[in-house]
Design goal:
heterodimer, A: 109 residues, mainly alpha, Helix Hairpins, 3 helices, B: 511 residues, two-stranded antiparallel ribbon
């Protein structure tokens, strides 16, 4: 197995594990971490694509590298926003779950 | 048909600068609002939005005049190395709708999001006006971007601008709704990005026009299409990925709900259109189209039934959004069916887009109307709406007009949209979608009727309103609803604006 397929498989595995975590875990923090794991897998795949697309003796296709940097910035901001929301939620309710506490249900709902 | 495909590099067309201005204006607005701070954010928005409407009209006029899509090649670097902004008929219509609705929302939101006089700067008004501009900028980017990665970034910006709108008031339940929305959106965006990687790996470009010429029916393209579509469905809240929408849209302040329900979900839907009709029309299988529309049909039935059972007006409207999103997805098998019969797919595409526009205008009016009802009564329980007809006659009329558009009675925009979709379904022999659309229309009319009837009940003792709503706020709501109601007259327009600059694989060959 070449190194390239190994990286590709690692990326896919990360995406798989992350997807599982995002869907199965009930806690928002774990969901956010799982999202980051999928993101890492996708970025790894970007690297593989860059290496595969290398032509004319270049070390790698530069376009995916530029895309990865943008992707990382976006994923970082997304994580920051999610964590900020989670902290506000914890401040407001004392817990950080997505289940609706009974006390807050609308009286007529 | 297209310079890029013929090997000639794409060049900026006349009027291309308008595309740049459409992106620059909202971003400048956001920056100005951030720099000038709290008190001026509202003024900046009120200055930028009318200007943006003028720009959108100019762009539409330029498009109709030239009869082909407008292109701006950034820095003179043509794709695949550079990136291009493109505006076809779909983009122009959506840009215009967005500018119009945001302006209406801004006029409506004046009263709700005004800085308290003499007090310290409040956070909610500042955030609202800045986010309104940010939503506008990212939507414009979604409508104009010419490659899949710019679209990804635009979609993310749209999410980042939309999520905080949900929890402007900072109540725990809205924070929760915002977090759930964000998690769904993040799942959607990461799946979309994964699909984009696969496409880049297989074809070496993300430019829509170039990809359309290179995509072949093979596993990589199918996997990418599936991943990107599922990701976008999570953001568009198509059944069964709609769970985040009702609490998020119903909990937000009325002006924010209007923006979220009318426009933000349309951003990711627009991307589904781009993907299915522009990037990979050749590889979409009939089964995939039927599956997508099947989910849409489930959304129509489930969304409408759940809407009927709601006891609060804003939740009812939010579930009605879930149902109306379902209609949008009926266009895909219909367009594919027409293409399979060697007919131009115009009616299905125009119908789908018209549904998006008429739902956007009607739903914005209905959410803002619900906000006025809430402000007047101090609650929005459907069972206790009696007397609203007397207190807020214009609002109730607007609600009814919006409802008529959702049901699809002539001359409403919803009628023309559903009529185009219905007739296409009959042309292509897909009668089952007709059944769904008619059943959905009946269910919709049931809950619109219930609300209007409840509100028309006269009360003996005049109950004192919690807050007197100024006439101009009612007028804005009514204007938007009337627009949706009269949109069906678009059928009388001499040109089908939606189709300008659209690729026509079969019609082009026949001429």
């Amino acid at each position: 197995m070449s190194g390239l397929s190994l990286f590709g498989l690692c990326g896919s595995a990360l995406i798989g594990i992350g997807l599982y975590g995002l869907i199965v875990n009930p806690q928002p923090l774990r969901k956010i971490l799982a999202f980051n794991m999928i993101g890492s897998g996708v970025f790894l795949l970007f690297g593989v694509v860059a290496r595969r697309g290398a032509a004319l003796g270049m070390g790698g296709d530069p376009v995916p590298q530029a895309l990865v940097i943008t992707g990382i910035v976006v994923a970082f901001s997304a994580t920051a926003l999610a964590i900020a929301l989670l902290l506000r939620l914890h401040e407001a309710t004392g817990s950080a779950t997505l289940r609706a506490p009974d006390a807050e249900r609308q009286p007529d709902a | 048909m297209n310079g890029a495909m013929a090997g000639i590099p794409e060049a900026t067309t006349a009027g291309g600068f308008l595309l740049v201005l459409m992106l620059v204006l909202p971003v400048l607005g956001v920056l100005a609002a951030l720099v000038l701070g709290g008190r001026h954010a509202r003024r900046v928005a009120m200055l930028a939005l009318p200007l943006g409407l003028v720009l959108a009209v100019m762009l539409g006029a330029e498009l109709v005049q030239s009869g082909q899509k407008l292109v701006y090649v950034l820095g003179g670097w043509s794709p695949p190395l550079g990136i291009a902004l493109r505006a076809d008929g779909l983009s122009a219509v959506m840009l215009l709708t967005t500018a119009l609705i945001l302006l209406a929302v801004a006029v409506y939101g004046q009263a709700d999001f005004r800085m308290p006089e003499g007090a310290a700067d409040a956070r909610a008004p500042f955030m609202f006006w800045t986010l309104l501009l940010a939503v506008w900028g990212s939507l414009n980017a979604v409508f104009l971007a010419g490659d899949l990665f710019t679209l990804y970034v635009a979609l993310e910006l749209l999410t980042f601008a939309g999520v905080p709108l949900v929890c402007l008031d900072g109540r725990p339940e809205t924070l929760q709704a915002a977090l759930r929305y964000l998690l769904f959106a993040l799942l959607g965006s990461v799946l979309y990005m994964l699909g984009a990687v696969l496409l880049y790996g297989a074809y070496g470009t993300l430019d829509i026009a170039l990809l359309a010429g290179r995509v072949r029916p093979e596993p990589a393209a199918f996997a990418a299409a599936a991943l990107m579509t599922v990701g976008l469905l999570a953001k568009t809240a198509l059944f069964p990925l709609h769970l985040w929408l009702p609490p998020a849209h119903a909990g937000a302040p009325a002006a924010a709900s209007a923006v979220l329900s009318a426009l933000v979900v349309k951003g990711s839907f627009f991307l589904v259109i781009r993907l299915w009709l522009d990037v990979m029309p050749g590889i979409v299988t009939p089964v995939a189209g039927q599956l997508l529309a099947g989910l849409g049909a489930a959304a129509i039935i489930v969304g409408n039934l759940v809407a009927l059972r709601q006891t609060r007006l804003k939740l009812l409207i939010a579930y009605s959004t879930v149902a109306q999103i379902g209609y949008l997805f009926l266009m895909f098998p219909l367009a594919a069916g027409l293409s399979a019969m060697q007919l131009p797919n115009d009616p299905a595409v125009t119908g789908g887009l018209l549904q998006a526009v008429s739902h956007a205008t009607a739903k914005a009016a209905m959410f803002m109307g619900a906000g006025l009802i809430y402000a007047t009564l101090g609650h929005d329980r459907i069972a206790d709406l009696a007397g609203v007809g007397r207190q807020l006659p214009m609002t109730l009329l607007a609600f009814a007009l919006g409802g008529i558009s959702l049901v699809g009675l002539p001359p409403a925009g919803g009628f023309l949209a559903k009529w185009l979709l219905l007739s296409t379904a009959l042309t292509t022999g897909q009668w089952w979608w007709v059944v769904v659309m008619v059943a959905g229309g009946l269910l919709t009319s049931a809950y619109v009727f219930i609300v209007v009837m409840r509100a028309l009940v006269a009360v003996d003792a005049e109950n004192t309103p919690k807050m007197v709503v100024p006439r101009h706020r009612e007028a804005v709501v009514l204007a938007l609803a009337s627009l949706s109601f009269l949109l069906g007259l678009a059928a009388l327009l001499p040109v089908d604006i939606v189709q300008i600059g659209r690729p026509q694989p079969f019609a082009a060959g026949l001429r």
